[in-house]
Amino acid sequence: MEMRYKDGIGVYAVTKIGTHKVKQIQSNANVCLIVSDKEKWEQIIVDCVVHVSQCEELKDQAWEDKFLDYEYTGIDDPKLTFITFTPRRIIHHTMTTPPEVLITEPIQYDKDLQIMKDLSKFGECYHLTSVDENKRVHSRIMGFIFFNPILSFTMGSQTGTTKIISLKHNVHSVLTTYRDSSGDTYSIEALIISQTCKEILYTTLNPLYLSTGFKGPDDTAQTVLQINVTKAEYVNVKQYLSGLTQMK
Description:
By secondary structure, this protein is an alpha+beta fold. It has seven helices and 13 strands.
């Protein structure tokens, strides 16, 4: 994959929507870029979070006529997709000195993940809202959110439901919840991927799934929803309203 850099964008690459690489990123946004100098025996590793984007503003900024050589029809090509890279750490390896590690300020992605971790401990029901291929809005009440060190955040669901069909056509979704007693409210924008392979079902098996009627990882009626956070917001409504009252 050819990397580019432009002020206002940073490091990015151009690709086509629907490729295997895009699907991998939607499942796991954590990547490493590795650059090696074989003559000097040096290596630079860049630990990144990546995002897949087709937004018009980014297309306007990043478009080059050279992309026409890659079989794109133009800036309005529906397949034209950009992958942007946000560094967390840069590690410089040499044969003669200890590794040099440069750490960036905490990026928004990591802050969003912390909010999501707090949400997963909430133990409440959540509203999952998505839009299907006919632009109809679907909202469903979901149960527990679990954290898995490999897949990050997941939920269980039944295979073949309207929700699953909707998510296969459009992975962009919103999770929301509110606790009246404390005033805590969460809003999570995410890419939610339906996973049915046995390896993932075994990895994410939870006793709570069994209590809801699933028979185990071999149960074809079970689907795991992998939640890839793109934006997370937390607001305590009671504190917010109290602050507004004090401003009057």
